[in-house]
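Colleagues,

For the teaching module next term, I've prepared a clean inverse folding example: a structure given as tokens, and then the sequence designed for it. I'd like students to try predicting residues themselves before seeing the answer, so please don't circulate the second half yet.
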């Protein structure tokens, strides 16, 4: 009897042991694995600089969660070029606040594959310093995907658990109002006007991030300049506009020292520019009236750069020509 009891107990113990081993094996096999944006960056040596930058800026955890993002990811060579171009010895030399905003300028909310991207402006997670308004990015899909007129997507649609990654060939610098003017073909005539004379310093001034930035630029479209040429007597092209008139005209489109968003525009609001002033009208839509009684429409608002904001207009604002 004792022998049978011993055998029975041994059998029960062996079952318990087998069950325990089986549970352990199952636990090992079923351990969850993740492939978040942060995981992908950490696992790929060509993005080690990006990983180090994310760690330094405290953004790794953001890209390791469940919220979905689209990340335009520069490789190590892109970071090396960025550091050299900006005079930084290494990543540790980049101020953390600057590095943070540059990195956030590579991130947009949600999962956006290359097929989801279209020519136009999208919103990044970077912020303009004086308003906290999210900075835009100009996407051009005419030939691949080009960002802000400078950076190309080299490998698209890398799927991860919390979004998608697109590898890019350069670090995307924080855009200025000049960046958008040159990247967006809508403003080709404006750029031509800003650069027509060697004495003009508009590009240098509007590219700065210090005083007198931030800027608010009311930017005429190409059609607006074509209409101006047709309107002015004795003028057949942009080149025919007298230099003094052109300079005074360009000055009348720029507000210095303030990032004026569309939510701050009010009816009968007088806008003081680097040149003459003009009046904003908001009744029945956003329009303006210049000192010559000419009216135009504000057709696109709040294109946010790091050093100011652009509002597109369909008529060139003229200073007082009397």
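(Answer key — instructors only)
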């Amino acid at each position: 009897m004792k022998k049978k009891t011993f055998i029975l107990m041994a059998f029960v113990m062996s079952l318990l042991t087998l069950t325990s081993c089986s549970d352990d094996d199952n636990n090992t096999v079923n351990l969850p694995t993740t492939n978040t944006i942060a995981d992908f960056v950490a696992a790929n040596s060509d993005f080690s600089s990006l990983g180090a930058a994310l760690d330094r800026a405290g953004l790794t955890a953001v890209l390791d969660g469940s919220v979905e993002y689209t990340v335009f990811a520069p490789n190590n060579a892109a970071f090396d070029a960025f550091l050299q171009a900006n005079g930084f010895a290494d990543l540790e030399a980049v101020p953390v606040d600057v590095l943070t905003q540059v990195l956030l300028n590579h991130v947009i909310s949600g999962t956006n594959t290359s097929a989801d991207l279209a020519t136009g402006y999208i919103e990044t997670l970077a912020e303009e310093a004086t308003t906290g308004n999210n900075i835009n990015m100009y996407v051009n899909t005419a030939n691949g995907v080009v960002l802000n007129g400078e950076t190309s997507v080299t490998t698209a649609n890398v799927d991860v658990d919390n979004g998608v990654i697109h590898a890019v060939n350069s670090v995307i610098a924080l855009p200025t109002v000049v960046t958008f003017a040159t990247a967006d073909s809508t403003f080709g005539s404006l750029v031509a006007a800003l650069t027509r004379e060697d004495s003009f310093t508009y590009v240098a001034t509007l590219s700065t991030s210090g005083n007198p930035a931030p800027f608010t630029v009311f930017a005429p479209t190409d059609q607006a300049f074509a209409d101006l040429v047709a309107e002015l007597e004795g003028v057949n092209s942009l080149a025919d506009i007298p230099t003094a008139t052109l300079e005074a005209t360009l000055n009348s489109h720029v507000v210095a020292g303030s990032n004026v968003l569309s939510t701050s525009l009010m009816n009968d609001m007088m806008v003081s520019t680097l040149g003459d002033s003009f009046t904003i009208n908001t009744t029945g839509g956003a329009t303006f009236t210049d000192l010559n009684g000419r009216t135009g429409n504000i057709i696109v608002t709040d294109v946010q750069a790091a050093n100011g904001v652009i509002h597109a207009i369909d008529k060139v604002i003229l200073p007082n020509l009397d």
